[in-house]
TrEMBL record:
<dbReference type="InterPro" id="IPR012349">
    <property type="entry name" value="Split_barrel_FMN-bd"/>
</dbReference>
<dbReference type="Pfam" id="PF01613">
    <property type="entry name" value="Flavin_Reduct"/>
</dbReference>
<keyword id="KW-0285">Flavoprotein</keyword>
<keyword id="KW-0288">FMN</keyword>
<feature type="region of interest" description="Disordered">
    <location>
        <begin position="1"/>
        <end position="31"/>
    </location>
</feature>
<dbReference type="GO" id="GO:0010181">
    <property type="term" value="F:FMN binding"/>
</dbReference>
<feature type="domain" description="Flavin reductase like">
    <location>
        <begin position="81"/>
        <end position="236"/>
    </location>
</feature>
<comment type="similarity">
    <text>Belongs to the flavoredoxin family.</text>
</comment>
<dbReference type="GO" id="GO:0016646">
    <property type="term" value="F:oxidoreductase activity, acting on the CH-NH group of donors, NAD or NADP as acceptor"/>
</dbReference>
<dbReference type="InterPro" id="IPR002563">
    <property type="entry name" value="Flavin_Rdtase-like_dom"/>
</dbReference>
<protein>
    <submittedName>
        <fullName>Flavin reductase (DIM6/NTAB) family NADH-FMN oxidoreductase RutF</fullName>
    </submittedName>
</protein>
Amino acid sequence: MPSASAGTAPDESARTPDCEPQALPLPQRGHPSPIALSHARTVFLRADPIRTVIAWILDAMRVDFDPAAVGPTAFYRFLTSVVVPRPIAWVSTITPDGAVENLAPHSFFSIASTDPPIVQFTSIGRKDSLRNVEDTGEFVVNFSPEPMLHLIRDTATDFPRTVSEFNTAGIEREPSRCVRPSRVAAAPVVLECRSHTTLRMGNSTLVFGRVFFAAVHEEYLLNGRPDAGRLRPLTKLGGDEWGTLGEILHLNRIPYEEPQPD
Ligand SMILES: Cc1cc2nc3c(=O)[nH]c(=O)nc-3n(C[C@H](O)[C@H](O)[C@H](O)COP(=O)(O)O)c2cc1C
């Protein structure tokens, strides 16, 4: 499996003949793809024919999206419509001279490591947030509650680097404890981060930040823990769609138990 690293091109040798993009006029409905057909034929020879035919019929009901055939923009829309819901990191950064405080939402966001605690956001292209992190090594992840929907949207405009979204959107800030970029005063949770690694991958750069300090407004805690129902996090879906937290389900994990001898 090829591993991605800074500045490497995608490994085209990983593309098998079955994956040639030109082979599939896409999207197409109602016909099994060549890959599905050859796979189904192989399985048919080896396994239960009834199950194989069922799998074949189910395959025929899919619409195929080959990234190379549909192109990067269409596949971006596809990916961001299926990898949903995505939590939104509202990232604050500062220019190296300290003159401009930047704020922008990033929904390509996740936990990368728990010990040490590292979170990660992705800049698609080279945005001001990324440049500021590269130049200063610091950022704050502010969490995005439902009541701040319009304010968050207002900070996603592609202003020049000299313009502060805190100012244009009229967002109150408060000083951070460990880093220079300010926090959003009304954010229920803030993570103060120092850049750990940046990783260029295709058209994007992944920014990994070690969390040096976290703070939660007291009203969002329940029994000492941040409570999802109180946090009311916003999420990003495909296109211009946003999401809110749905029903919260409680379900415990089942521990593995060694079979006991009779
Ligand atoms: C909810 C939401 C999530 C977004 N997520 C991302 C993302 O993950 N990565 C990205 O590069 N842009 C994302 N954007 C677009 C950026 O916020 C937008 O390009 C912004 O202008 C970047 O600001 P900056 O140049 O000050 O960093 C998102 C926009 C919205 C509204």
